[in-house]
Amino acid sequence: MNKKELQEIKRTLKYDDSSIHTIYSCYATLDGEKIFTSQKSYLSLTEEERIEYTNIFKKVLSTKIERNFINIDFDVNNKAREKLFAFTRNNEKEDIDRMFTDIISNYKSEENFAVIIGKMTYDLLKKSSDGAELEDSDEVYNFYIIAICPVKKEKGSLYFDNNAQDFASNLRDFIIFPPEVGLLYPGFSQRSASIYECGYYIKNTKMDHDEFQKGFLNHEIELIYDDQKEVFNQLIEEAFSSELGIKELAEINEKTNFFKLQQEENEEDTTLRGSDIKSILESSGAKTTDLNIDEDIQLKAENLAEDKYIIETDGIKIIVKKDFISSIKEKEVDGIKSLVLPMIDMTMNDIPIK
Q1: Minimal CA–CA distance to 278: which of 258, 245, 260, 255?
Q2: Sign of CA dihedral 203, 205, 207, 211
Q3: Cβ neighbours of residue 249 closer than 8 Å, sequence gap 6 or more
Q4: pLDDT (tens place) for every residue of the chain, 354 residues total
C-alpha cells in the first residue's frame, strides 16, 4: 500500500456519508479482563459519536508509510492472516468475541484500553486512462479497521453548578484517547483487496509493542522509523570523517527529500538502496574513500527526510524550517567555530531585538 492508496481509503471515512457500517467495541482492563463488549450500527449513532469514531479510524490510516504505518506481507500459512481472513468472512458474535480475546491477550498496556473495530465497504469506481472516475462500480472493497486506544481519566476541573449557585468539582469520566496501535485488513493494493497484506499502525515508534507483533500478528517487524534514522545518521557520520557542517547536512536532507518527492510523483517505491545513499552522500561532499555502504541496505526516504532542522548544544536549542537553513552561516569567532544568524525581525521573549 502506498500513500496514494491510503489517502483514497481515508477519503471514504466521512461522518455524514461514510463507508462504515458497523462498530464493534470492547473495553478491557490493563490485566486483560473484558469489562464489556458492544455492537452498533454506525447510522444509529449521534452525529457527535460518528465524528469521534471516524476520527479514531482515520488516525490508523496514517500516510507516513514505514514510519507510523507499516505494510505487512503475510506468508500463505501465517496464522494471523488466517484468523483475520476468517474474521472478515464469518463475523458472528463468537467470531467477534474470539477476535477481541486474541487482541487483548497479546496487547500489553499500562492502563485500561478499548478495542474498536469498524466494518466498512468501499465501492471502487472504475477509472478512465486519465484518472477520472466513471459512474459504474467495478469492485467492492470490504475492509476492517482495528484501533486499540488507551482509556484514561480526564483531568479534574471546576464548573458552575447552576442548581447550587456555586462552583464545584466535576465528575472525572474515563476518556478514550487516540489509538496507540491499529490494523487495516485486508490491504488495499492497486485499487483492489489484498488478503496477503495488512496495514499496521503504531503511534509511538519508540514503543515496539513486541508482544502484539509476535503474539497476534505472528510477524516480527524490523527496522522501523527510529532504527532507520539511526542507521542513516551513522552512515553520514562515517562518510564525513573529516568535516561535516550545516551546509553538508542540509544538502543531504534536501537531496533525500527530492528523491522521496520524485519517487512519489512517479508512483514508485521510495526505498533508498545502497547505491542511492552513496550517490546522495557523494554529491553532498563525502569522499569516495570514506563511503563503505552495504549494497543490500534498504531505508525509506520518508523516514529520513526532515521538514525542519534542530541545532543543539548545552543550554541552546535552535529550530529552523528547512527553507531557511541557508540563512545560517558558520564562522570562526575568537578562534571558535560559531554560527551566525541574521538579526532581521528577531525577537527574544517576544521582545524585538534592536
Answers
A1: 255
A2: positive
A3: 236, 309
A4: 888 888 999 999 988 877 899 999 999 999 989 999 999 999 999 999 999 999 999 999 987 777 788 889 998 888 899 999 988 887 778 889 999 999 999 999 989 999 999 999 998 876 555 555 555 666 899 999 999 999 998 777 787 888 888 888 777 788 999 999 999 999 998 888 999 999 999 998 777 788 899 899 988 776 566 678 888 999 999 888 778 889 999 999 999 999 999 988 887 888 899 999 999 999 998 887 667 788 888 888 888 988 899 999 999 999 999 889 999 999 989 999 899 998 889 999 999 998
Cα–Cα distance, 261 to 259 (Å, whole number): 6
DSSP string, 270-300: -EEEHHHHHHHHHHTT--GGG----TT-EEE
Spans of all domains in the chain:
3-222, 224-306, 307-353
Of 27, 48, 58, 18, nearest in space to 178 by CA = 58
Q: How far, rounded to the nearest angstrom, does the alpha carbon of residue 339 sit from its chain's CA centroid?
A: 34
Residue 187: CB partners within 8 Å, gap ≥ 6? 1, 71, 193, 194, 195, 196, 197, 198, 199
C-alpha cell at 237: 557520520
d(CA 171, CA 106): 32
For the chain, the distance separating the N- and C-terminal CA atoms, rounded to the nearest angstrom, is 53
Residue 126: CB atoms within 10 Å: 13
88 within 8 A of 18, measured Cβ to Cβ: no
Q: Which amino acid is at 159?
A: Y
In sequence order, what are the residues at sequence separation of 6 or more whose Cβ sits closer than 8 angstroms to the Cβ of residue 279? none
Identity of residue 164: A
Residues across the chain:
354
